[in-house]
Amino acid sequence: MIAKQSEIVLSLLRCLLLVFLGISNVSQLVAQDRTILIRNGRVMDGSGNPWFTADVLIRGGQIEAVGNLEDAAADEVIDATGLYVTPGFIDTHSHSGPGLATPGLSHGEPLLAMGLTTVFVNPDGGGPTDISQQGTSLVEDGLGVNVAQMVPHGSLRRSVMGEEEREATPAELERMKRMVVAGMEEGAWGLSSGTYYVPGNYAPPEELEELAKEVAPYGGVYQSHHRDESTYSVGLIASVEEVINVGRVAGIPTILTHVKALGPEVWGYGPAIVQRVEQ
């Protein structure tokens, strides 16, 4: 029974990967007029409304009808009774980049099995600085999920000034800015940082603000593993506020990753973190 349900879930997710997120490599595998009918699923449309029972008819990778489709026929019929039919989930902090670039793993079935159809790679300020080259290697075998690449701050800093524990000079900062712009021009979705790690933790907030500003004209986002999860340096609350302020100064959406209180010294800080984010 478990194996059967897993097979159904994978089939559903492959369909919804095509329907809701439209990744080109996978959609090429679907005949233009091929039809798939998902019956009796609990449809959650992503709007925030409660789920409702309905059938979903897909033709050529596009949703054609949703509702009571009792008389509809299709090339493939999936019985989704008792299962949820949703848009694919988005993982905004994924370390799956190297795996997806590995022959035989690019279809990402473990990701699909969890409902993930889009992943943001190069998190924590780590990963390749050549966004174009990474993109080429990712699509060589045909991707099974959507991939949003981030420009990794830590890798940029390392390539410009090694792991020196100091502020960047104006010339070094300009080089990093140009690399951010190049990455965005090559298709990146934003800037990631890991100020918890070397060499990102050597960068002052002002450096991150200046680099994040380069992302704004492209409609990009800022994503950060913040500087302190406990009481190691600036403190948990201050590190959360730093990330929020970088996004505010740059005028871009911000993703705060690894929101946690590490150790008894900061237990109970969860509500305070949520309050800072909501403000």
Radius of gyration: 22 Å
CATH hierarchy, class of the largest domain: Alpha Beta
Give start-end ranges of low-pLDDT stretches.
1-29
Number of strands: 11
What is the number of helical segments per DSSP (H or I, 4+ residues)? 10
The rounded distance between the terminal residues' Cα atoms is 47 Å
* CATH fold-level topology of the largest domain: TIM Barrel
Average per-residue pLDDT, rounded, comes to 89
Strand line-up of the largest beta sheet: 6-7-8-9-10-11
Label the CATH architecture of the largest domain.
Alpha-Beta Barrel
Percent of residues in helices comes to: 25-40%
User: Sheet with the most strands?
Assistant: 6 strands, parallel
Rough outline? globular
CATH superfamily of the largest domain: Metal-dependent hydrolases
Structural class of the secondary elements?
alpha/beta
The overall number of domains is 2
- The H-and-E topology, N to C, reads as HHEEEEEEHHEHEHHEHEHEH
Strand portion: 15-25%
From the structure above, extract its key features:
single chain; alpha/beta; Urease, subunit C, domain 1; TIM Barrel; 2 domains; 6-stranded parallel beta sheet; 5-stranded mixed beta sheet; 10 helices; 21% strand; globular; disordered N terminus; hydrolase activity, acting on carbon-nitrogen (but not peptide) bonds; Metal-dep_hydrolase_composite; Metal_Hydrolase; Amidohydro_3
Word description of this protein:
The structure is a single chain. By secondary structure, this protein is an alpha/beta fold. It has 2 domains: 2-85, Urease, subunit C, domain 1, CATH 2.30.40; 89-278, TIM Barrel, CATH 3.20.20. 36% of the residues lie in helices and 21% in strands. The chain has 10 helices and 11 strands. The protein has helices at 2-21, 24-27, 97-100, 109-113, 131-139, 153-161, 170-185, 205-213, 236-250, 270-278; strands at 35-43, 52-59, 62-67, 76-79, 84-85, 89-91, 116-121, 146-152, 190-194, 221-225, 254-257. The strands form 2 sheets. The protein has a 6-stranded parallel β-sheet. Helix 8 (205-213) links the parallel strand 9 and strand 10. It is globular. Residues 76-213 form the Amidohydrolase domain. It holds the Pfam family Amidohydro_3.
